[in-house]
Amino acid sequence: MTAHDSTSRATPTPRFGVNYTPTTGWFHHWLDFDLDAVRADLDSIAALGLDHIRVFPLWPLFQPNRTLIRPGAVEQLVQLVDAAGERGLDVNVDGLQGHLSSFDFQPSWTVTWHRRNIFTDPDVVAAQEEYLRTLAAALADRPNFLGMTIGNEINQFSSGPHPDPDRITPGQAAAWLRRVLDACERGAPGGFHLHAEYDAAWYQDDHPFTPAHAACLGAATAVHSWVFNGTAQQYGPRSAATVHHAAYMIELSKAWADDPHRPVWLQEVGAPHPHIATADAARFTDSTVAAALDCPDLWGVTWWCSHDVDRALADFPELEYSLGLLTNDRRVKPAGRSIARIVGAWRDDQHAHHAAPRTTALIVDAGDEDTAPHRSVCGPGGKVFDAFMRLAEAGARPTTVLAARADDRKHLAARGITEVVAPGDVR
After folding, report:
1. What are the boundaries of each domain within the chain?
2. Measuring CA to CA, how many Å separate 255 from each of 228, 373, 401, 413?
3. Is 184 helix (H, G, I), strand (E, B) or coil?
4. Which end of the chain is least crowded, N or C, by CB within 10 Å?
5. Residue 311's Cα: distance from chain center in Å?
6. What is the structure's pLDDT at 63?
7. CA distances from 160 to 195, 201, 204 (A)
């Protein structure tokens, strides 16, 4: 597999997992790595019935100098992956952290006196390639290692609203993605390697990371669904738009995919307070996951996040402290009980939950297929978004198709689409 492939690696049934937030020290736990604390965290995750975790090395700690990748840090990552395997948990590793929960983590050799564009500077990109290759190679022989995600929403460094972005073009973004994905492949051939952006890639007209990049590069399409992006505020926390937002992003991604059955990974989704009231977290969880599971070719659902952030840590946005399925002292919360119940029901009766094809497709016209200069039509308040949500509220199961493919009978047949509808025709 190369970074140019759109390879179908869908599992027979969706996977259920969680983004791992350590209870001790948050992601700063790498500074004082305590394997016993990690094991206790993983025990509480496995007790929910989940089958995988996504983990986050901090790039500046693992590669503090452009030519130094710390062997001790890599070994700690291997220990974490092995501990997860002992508990029946597969592991996806995010490499370039990058951005987490409002904080940026960039090594000193890319900022201030050493400021260089992290997407285009040849020395920086070569160092990123070696770092990602090294992490992948260290885990390549672990049977529970799924593969690499390039980084957590690293696209936020490329454009506003970031206060100091490294500006690039869509062509430069594609070239960078191909290089770093190929580096992961060199380290762990055949791994489930992918990249993941926040929703500016889908909704922001001038964003250099595009829907085509997300839907065509790497082993799967990753979507991160957060209803604090204006959805909950504009439509209401209990609206069809809010509980179907994750399913909408899954189905929207398919408009750009060359592979009609490309796997889509709902890699981040959570119930952010106060946009979702604490009392409504379980209901939101049930409805959101049920809608996502009604999407064909879903690789899996990975909730954000495992454990609440310790309130002894300062300066996080308020919503970040309460997103866990478990409290910071590892007690299961209502959303955690919902996830455990869903996982148990699915595994008890897998065939009853197989998602049928979505036969009605909304036409997406965002301009040029590669750069999508008018993709805001897909965001909250846009005509594609609103038409999709009107159909969902009426009980329909819509998907999407690019305007350029709306008359392509072979493409429509491959996806099981029998009806194509313009957004303006949905009343």
Report:
1. 15-353, 360-425
2. 24, 15, 4, 14
3. helix
4. C
5. 25
6. 98
7. 20, 12, 10
pLDDT at residue 218 greater than cutoff 90? yes
Give 17's strand partners. 52, 302
- C-alpha to C-alpha distance for 179 and 181, rounded to whole angstroms: 6
368 or 11: which carries more pLDDT confidence?
368
Report the distance separating Cα 109 and Cα 425, nearest Å: 53
pLDDT band at 347 (very low <50, low <70, confident <90, very high): confident
User: b/e per residue, 246-256, with b = 16+ CB within 10 A?
Assistant: bbbbbbbbbbb
Which H or E run includes 296? none
The span from the first CA to the last CA of the chain, in angstroms, equals 44
Q: Is the pTM of this model over 0.85?
A: yes
- Tell which CATH classification among 3.40.50.360, 1.10.10.10, 3.20.20.80, 3.40.50.20 matches the domain 15-353: 3.20.20.80
Closest CA to 111 of 175, 157, 73, 156: 157
**Site of tokens 């007209």:** 205
Closest C-alpha to 262, from 399, 406, 404: 399
Q: Quick one: which of 267, 197, 260 has its CA closest to 402?
A: 260
CA 372 to chain centre: 20
- pLDDT band, very low/low/confident/very high, at 98 (cuts 50, 70, 90): confident
Residue among 249, 154, 256, 251 nearest 197 (CA): 154
Q: 90 forms bridges with which residues in the sheet?
A: 52
3-state secondary structure of 110: helix
- Where does residue 49 rank: exposed (0-12), middle (13-18), buried (19+ CB within 10 A)? middle
Sorted by sequence, the CB contacts under 8 Å of residue 55 that are 6+ apart come out as 20, 77, 80, 81, 91, 92, 93, 94
Among 99, 105, 90, smallest CA distance to 18 is for 90
Please write the tens of the pLDDT for every residue from 55-78.
Answer: 999 999 999 999 999 999 999 999
Residues 6+ apart with CB under 8 A from 167: 117, 158, 159, 208
Q: What kind and span of H or E run contains 128?
A: helix 122-139
* Cα angle 294-214-196, degrees, rounded to a multiple of 5: 85
How far apart (Å, rounded) are the C-alpha atoms in residues 204 and 361? 22
Other Cβ atoms less than 10 A from the Cβ of 130: the count is 17
Alpha helices in 197-354 (DSSP H): 200-203, 211-216, 231-235, 240-243, 245-253, 281-293, 334-348
